[in-house]
Structures are given as structure tokens and as C-alpha cells.
Amino acid sequence: MDKQTLSFQAEVKQILHLVTHSLYSNKEIFLRELVSNASDACDKLRFEALNDASLYEDQPNLEVRVAFDKDARTITFRDNGIGMSAEEAVANLGTIAKSGTREFMSRLEGDQKKDAQLIGQFGVGFYSGFIVADRITVETRRAGAAADHGVRWTSEGTGDFQVESITRPERGTSVILHLREGEDEFLNGWKLKAIIGKYSDHISLPVLMQKEEWDAEAQQQVTKDEWAPVNKAAALWTRSKNDITPEQYAEFYKQISYDTEAPLAYTHNRVEGRSEYTQLLYVPAKAPFDLWNRDKRGGVKLYVKRVFIMDDAEALMPVYLRFVKGVIDSADLPLNVSRELLQESRDVKAIREGSTKRVLGMLESLANSEDEAERAKYAAFWKDFGVVLKEGIGEDHANHERLTKLLRFTSTHADEGVSLADYVSRMKEGQESIYVITADSLATAKNSPQLEIFRKKGIEVLLLTDRVDEWLLSHLHDFEGKTLQSVAKGAVDLGSLQDEAEKKQAEEAATAFKPVLDRLKEALKDRAKDVRVTTRLVDSPACLVVEEGDVSAHLARMLKQAGQ
Ligand code: ADP
Ligand code: MG
Is the distance from CB of 235 to CB of 62 less than 8 angstroms? Predict the structure, then answer.
């Protein structure tokens, strides 16, 4: 193939512009991204070689080497992983295939700080090299292809890139960064080792750098032709808990999630018994931009006996825990397991059940902690992820009770953080139901005339204003033997909360007002099923309610809005 010049996809140009302009304050991440790509490439080779061992050629030991050259002002990342064909190089390094890119781009606001955070969440990948380089050369040859099927890809990270054929006897990829003016701080062995060590400690293959020695005569550090690992090269989750610091756990989380913040909580366990696996699961501190998307696959990576199998193995977690990130390494699954097989596997079912319990346990220990700071963490979690966790009430019958205890609400008594148990503990003498009202905003809920009698009597009412709340109520009927009752439905029965005098008054009113009611019923006959005298109002003259068991007025409005 002769040298060709090709243009970047429009989205890539935008990403390149953003990455080089807004990630400058956090520029060392290019080291994380390029080492992680090299490691991914080795994982892919190991996976493909399961079916074709000849792909290892004569180099069975997978590794990544990072070198720098002070005179040429370059940093080179070299791996002996899967490599790329010419077509793959053009597609992978010229377009963005990731789903959600468009949505992601549309969320950028042009505010550098916020955008940088978003880009961090999205994962900048290969293009981050251009933060510090004004030219990147990639030389690669796919495993199994002939030596003369190598490719050289070069770009200055603006509008286009060049590709040409080369001969490359070794399989794998070299990424060569030609540093921009002023980026010489990275031409320093100490610095590179420190940063790469931090980012790659949990990677399961060795990341090697050359040793350096002080040359007294030349009065400078000289690099020797001797390579030594800068990381422990043991996949983090395979190590013993006692040997892992919270910082290492956090670093691993950032690497797999692209989050810039440390996680809220994590759980790391080796499970033995019927099904054997290791789980390292994290709850993020902040919701990602696409949390709402139920089609988005989960954030759990599947390994089998330390071989990477797939990202986003959604069968490992229920949909309502799609925000959980982490790794599950199974000892039982076959290495050639597919997404389809995962759906049916009994081992996977056991893993999903076990992992769900662990995640709920993690949330419970925050929510019920003696420590106020931990409880505050749960409050923060609820703020960001509560709407998603609520989906579990209808989806996960096995954990229904545990989930109901994790719910938090706003009520007429407290602006946030009201659990059903809190509510029950504040119930009035003789109160039998948990009263709730749904509305599309807190203001509407609070000003609802249906609340008047409850206010007057000091009875707490939960104010439900999330879009999923109607749906939640259809799956949440009672808690500790107390039924949930909407104050906007039917003839709210205050039961023994009402005194005799009030009951009598209501009966008298009903008789006295009968002629008025009859006329109103006649006048509204096409629009109202019934017109009744009520005791639920204090100041307002009238209010609308729906029949017990009917779609609530709020839900009816939502359905109408959705065009149904
Ligand atoms: P991601 O790693 O999230 O897919 P990147 O921007 O980091 O996104 O990389 C884009 C793609 O380029 C990768 O998915 C991979 O196909 C290819 N790639 C990057 N670096 C390498 C490498 N060292 N070896 C083989 N392929 C690579
Ligand atoms: Mg990457």
C-alpha cells in the first residue's frame, strides 16, 4: 500500500480539539491511556490465541515496554499484543465506534473544567497522546499476518493522518509520541516510572522500562540496555486484600471506570463453594452522564481464570445495578463463553445473585452505619442513584425487602432522607397506613389541597416526585404490614385517626349538601364519576381525586405527555 492521506471522522476532530485544549491540566493521563491500550492489546491476543496458539509466533511472553529518547524527544510504548491490520488502524485510529459518542458530544458545554470532567468519564483513549505530542507515529503488525503486512500510521492530530505499508517482523504495536515544545519534563526516567507505576500496578502483565545509571564521567544519567518491571504485574483482584491499599483500589477503579473521582465504596471477595469466583465491585461517587439509559450495558468486566473475556458483561448484574463497576473473575466458566451463553449459564446466575447481595450489603452498611460520614455517603449515593435503585423494587423480587429498606424519600416532615422505617416510627397512634402523594414537582406536591387534613393533624405524608415513583408504587404495596396509601385516591380513610365528632360532622354535611351534590353531579356528569363531601380539606373548597385502583391524575398527565 502506498502512502495515503485520510481525513479523521468529524467526531474525532472534535475530540482531538477538546482533548488537547481542555485536558491540559491533567496531561499525564496519556500515560495511563497508552499503557492501558497496550495491555488491552495483549489481553486480546491471549484471548484469540485460545483458539489458535500459533498467534504467539515465537514470543509467548506478553509485555509492554516504555522507553524515552532525550535527543529525539520521543516516548515509545511498545507491546507484543494483537497489533492491527491496515484496515483496523484506519478504523480504530481514525473513527470513533463507541456508542453514545454523539450524545456525549452534545453534552459538552464549552466550559473547560466541566468538559474535562466529562471527557474523563467518557475515556479519551488513544487521542490523549496529542495532549503532549504534536506528532504520533504508530507502527503495527497484526498477529498472524506476514511481516510485510505491517502499517505505519502518522498524524499531527489536526485534520488528517497518513498510512503506508511497512515491514515489521515482530507482531504488535509501537506508539511513538513526538513531544511538543515544552513537554520535556516527561523525558525523565524517574518521573515516567513513578506515573506509569501508579497507573499500571494492577495490570496483569509486566510494564518494563530501561534501567538507568549515573555516569560519573559524563555527569549524567545513562540508560542501560537492561529492562525491569515498574509494576507488580499481578491483576489487582487476584492479590490479597491485606496487600492492597485504598489508594490502589481507587486507582484501579479510576482506570476501569474513567472516573476522575475515587469510588464511594467497594467490595472485594473471593467466593468459594458451588460456584467459584472473585469479585471486585465499586459504587461510583457520581452518576455518569448516561445513567438513565437502560440499554447501556453494565460496567462489570468478565475474566475467566485471569483471561479477559469481555467488557460490559450485563448478565453479571441486574439492570438496576448498572452503575456498579468492577471485575468478576470466574474459575468455572468456559473460556469461549459468549454473551448468549452467559444469559443461560447457571454459574452466571449464581454470580449475579451473589454479586447483587454484595452490592446491597455495601449500600446497607453505608446507610446503617454508626458513622455519620458513612451515612452522608449513602445520602449522596441516594441523590445520584436513587432513581435507578428504585427500579429494583419491581425487578428484583428476591431482594424486595432489602431494597425497600434502602429507599429514601422527601416528606412533609423532612426534606430528604426519610426511610420507610423512619416514617413508621413517627406514625400517629392509631395510624394504619403510610400516606403518600405523587406529583411532578415538590412544589405541586406540597401545595396540594389533598394534604390539608394531614397537615392539620400532623400526619406525615411522603412526597413522591420522581418519574419512576408511580411505577414504584405499583410494586410497593406495604412495608412492615402497613399499606401505602395515596392521599389523592378514593375516599382516604383516616380510620381511628378521625374522632367521633368529625365523623358525625361529615355525615351531617353529606345529608345537608345532598341537593348541591346532586346538581353538581348532573352538571359534571360527563367529566366526573362522582361528587362527594369530604373531610380531607381544611381551607380549599374542592379537590380532584381518582378512584381507588385507577391511574392517578399525575400518572395520567405523564402518559398524556408521552403521547399515550
Ligand atoms: P478504547 O481503548 O476505549 O477502545 P482508544 O481510543 O484507547 O479507545 O483506542 C481505540 C482503538 O484503537 C482500540 O479499541 C484498539 O482497537 C486500537 N488500539 C489502540 N492502541 C492499540 C494497541 N496498542 N494495539 C492494538 N490496538 C490498539
Ligand atoms: Mg483505550
Answer: no
Q: At residue 297, does pLDDT exceed 70?
A: no
- Compute the chain's Rg from CA coordinates: 31
What dihedral angle (degrees, nearest 10) is formed by the CA atoms of 180, 183, 189, 191? -140
Q: How far apart are CA 172 and CA 143, in angstroms?
A: 7
pLDDT at 553 over 70: no
* ipTM of this complex prediction, to 2 decimal places: 0.99
Q: Give the full edge-to-edge strand order of the sheet including 150-155.
A: 4-7, 160-166, 150-155, 133-141, 172-179, 74-79, 64-69, 207-215, 220-229
User: How many Å apart are CA 479 and CA 482, to the nearest integer?
Assistant: 5
Question: Could you tell me the sign of the dihedral formed by the alpha carbons of 347, 353, 357, 359, in that order?
Answer: positive
Give residues (CB < 6 A) around ligand 1: 33, 37-38, 40-41, 79, 81-84, 92-93, 123, 125-126, 173
d(CA 466, CA 383): 11
122 is in an annotated binding site: yes
Cell of 434: 403510610
Query: If DSSP codes are grouped into helix, strand and coil, which group holds residue 20?
Result: helix
Residue 193 has pLDDT above 70, yes or no: yes
State the distance from the centre of ligand 1 to the C-alpha of 189, rounded, in angstroms.
25
What DSSP letter does each residue of 42-109 carry, written as one string?
HHHHHHHTTT-GGGGTT--S--EEEEEETTTTEEEEEE-S----HHHHHHHTTS---TTHHHHHHH--
